[in-house]
Every structure is written in structure tokens, then in C-alpha cells.
Design a protein that fits this description.
Blueprint (H helix, E strand, L loop, with lengths): L24 H25 L7 H15 L1 H6 L1 H5 L3 H10 L2 H13 L2 H10 L1 H11 L7 H19 L7 H26 L4 H21 L12 H30 L1 H4 L6 H13 L5 H17 L16
Helix pairs in contact: 1-6, 1-7, 1-12, 1-14, 2-11, 2-12, 5-10, 5-11, 6-10, 7-10, 7-14, 7-15, 8-10, 9-15, 11-12, 14-15
Length: 324
């Protein structure tokens, strides 16, 4: 037997721990949209519930835009130069698209209709408006399943409001029209987010800073009344959590991240789930019973948004994800 003087045996280095599965940017963006759906459902419910609360629209808006500014103040200060450098046209799209005009339109439209209308029309029509903005910007017109999906969305909205045409119900129709305006504004915001070179925190600052300033000015000058000082504590807490922390902070961060990860048109697919979530939640929370029009219109809108998001992949131009 031959022996060797190789020294003491050394144990092999421990194998590295198996890394867990890493989510792709598309998967992270999709997860962000799913959480956003739930928050937006809460927004639609609160838009309808506000009409029965002690808070006025201006009060809800101050909470919506003020809370994120307060929470993110240090981070926004560090981003002040990048926020100030945003092109005025893009900043205007964001400030109008999801700021005071959108908020007041959604709240007032919701007070005239129902939670199902808010949850269906506002997010459900966004893909159609986004496509219209893309075409106006030089993109080609939608074709195939995308065009069919956009058509289904339009048919779904018509089915939703048709029963209020005969006999004529001017209040509901006016509310639906205002919600359509809110949806168009949100589409403008969706496109605007894609045009700015800001992270999600900076995007929230770009939205909330001018919106809170405008709303505070309207309240201080008496243009819009405020009852925040005499409002019920429970109403303030509800809107602070849902509007300020939920919609203003969490949904703002998540939706901005999704826009940068998936793109404006694909992110608008959040509307395909939001109407269903709102209708289901409105039954136990607001005691709303789905009408026949809702049962027909909401599935059509949902199917339409799903179809509008389907795009055939081409071999010559593979899809390149946009990283946040």
C-alpha cells in the first residue's frame, strides 16, 4: 500500500443555500397591479360612501393628497430637483389626470350613481382612452382582439347605463358622464407617468404637491366648503386610511411601479378585475344589490379589458420589458 503525505483532509466549502425563485419585472408589475385592484376597489366604495359621510369632497381631497406628502416629506425633499426638472406638459398630465379634477369628478360622479358604476366605468374605460391617446400620439390603431376588446368595453358601458335612458334618469346619466370624464383623466395620468423620469416616490410628489396646494387654496378662499373641523372621527379615520394611505400612498407607489415595469397600455388591465371586486364588495359593505344592467355590463367590461390587453407576439420585434 502506498501512502501519501497530503496533510489533513479539508472539508469542502458548504454549498451555497439555494436561492428562492426571483420574480421577473413583469411578475412584480403584475403583483403590484393585483394589490392596486384591491385598493382601487376600496376607492370606488369610499367614493360612493362619501355621500353618506360627514366629510365634504374638499375634506376627502385634502386627506387624499396631504397624507402622502406628510409621510414622504423627507424622501420628496431629496428628489426636489428631479421633480422640478419634469417637463411642464408631462407634469400637467399627471397633476390633472389623477389630481384635483380627477378626484372631484370621481367623488361627485360616485355620489350620483353607485359603487358599481365607479368601479366599472372609471378603471374599465381606461384602456379605451389610453388607446385613443396612443393613436393620437402617432401609434397605429388597435386591431384584432385588442379592437374587439375595446368594442366590448364600450358595449358594456352602454349596457350599464341603458336602463336609465328609458325612462330617463338624468341624475344617473349625469353621474355616468362625469365618471367617463374621470376615466379619461386617469388615462391621461397613465400615459403621463410613462413620460417622466421619476421613481414611484417622485411620481407621487409630482402628483400630490400641486394637487394639495390647489385644494388648500380653494378651501382657504372659500371656493370649496370644508367641514373637516366638525366631521365625525370615524369618517376622518376611514378616509385617512383608504384615501390617504391606501390610494394616495400605497396605490400610487404600486401603480407607478407597474407603469414603469409593464407599460401604460398593459397596466390599464387593472380595470379587468376592479369592476368585479367592487360589485362583490358593495353588496355586504354598502348594501347595494346588483341590477340586471350591472350583471350584464360589468362582465362585458371585464372581458373587454382582458381582450384589449392581448397582443400577439411578433418574431421580428420581441417585447422588451421596461425596468423600473
Amino acid at each position: 500500500m502506498v501512502t501519501t503525505n497530503a496533510g489533513p483532509a479539508t472539508a469542502p466549502p458548504p454549498a451555497p443555500a439555494a436561492a428562492g425563485p426571483r420574480l421577473s419585472p413583469q411578475a412584480k408589475g403584475t403583483l403590484a397591479l393585483v394589490v392596486t385592484v384591491l385598493i382601487w376597489a376600496a376607492f370606488a366604495l369610499s367614493a360612493r360612501a362619501r355621500s353618506a359621510s360627514s366629510l365634504l369632497p374638499a375634506d376627502a381631497a385634502l386627506l387624499r393628497f396631504g397624507v402622502p406628502l406628510l409621510v414622504l416629506a423627507p424622501a420628496l425633499w431629496r428628489r426636489r430637483r428631479r421633480i422640478a426638472a419634469v417637463r411642464p406638459a408631462a407634469a400637467l398630465k399627471i397633476a390633472c389626470g389623477a389630481g384635483v379634477p380627477f378626484f372631484l369628478a370621481a367623488m361627485y360622479g360616485g355620489s350620483l350613481t353607485s359603487a358599481a358604476f365607479v368601479g366599472s366605468i372609471v378603471p374599465g374605460m381606461v384602456p379605451l382612452f389610453v388607446s385613443a391617446l396612443m393613436v393620437a400620439g402617432g401609434r397605429g390603431a388597435p386591431r384584432g382582439t385588442q379592437a374587439a376588446g375595446l368594442g366590448l368595453i364600450a358595449v358594456g358601458v352602454i349596457a350599464l347605463v341603458w336602463r336609465y335612458v328609458f325612462p330617463l334618469n338624468t341624475q344617473v346619466l349625469a353621474g355616468a358622464g362625469i365618471l367617463l370624464v374621470a376615466s379619461g383623466l386617469w388615462a391621461l395620468y397613465t400615459v403621463g407617468l410613462k413620460e417622466v423620469d421619476l421613481d414611484p416616490v417622485g411620481s407621487i410628489g409630482l402628483l400630490c404637491l400641486p394637487s394639495f396646494a390647489v385644494m388648500a387654496l380653494l378651501v382657504l378662499t372659500g371656493v370649496l366648503p370644508s367641514g373637516l373641523a366638525s366631521a365625525a372621527g370615524g369618517d376622518i379615520v376611514l378616509f385617512l386610511v383608504v384615501q390617504g394611505l391606501g390610494v394616495g400612498l400605497c396605490a400610487g407607489l404600486l401603480y407607478a411601479y407597474a407603469i414603469r415595469s409593464l407599460g401604460a397600455e398593459r397596466s390599464s388591465t387593472v380595470g379587468s378585475l376592479s369592476p368585479v371586486a367592487v360589485v362583490l364588495l358593495a353588496v355586504p359593505l354598502l348594501d347595494e344589490s346588483p341590477t340586471a344592467a350591472v350583471l350584464v355590463g360589468v362582465p362585458l367590461i371585464t372581458a373587454g379589458v382582458a381582450l384589449a390587453n392581448r397582443r400577439p407576439r411578433t418574431r421580428t420585434q420581441p417585447e422588451v420589458p421596461v425596468h423600473a
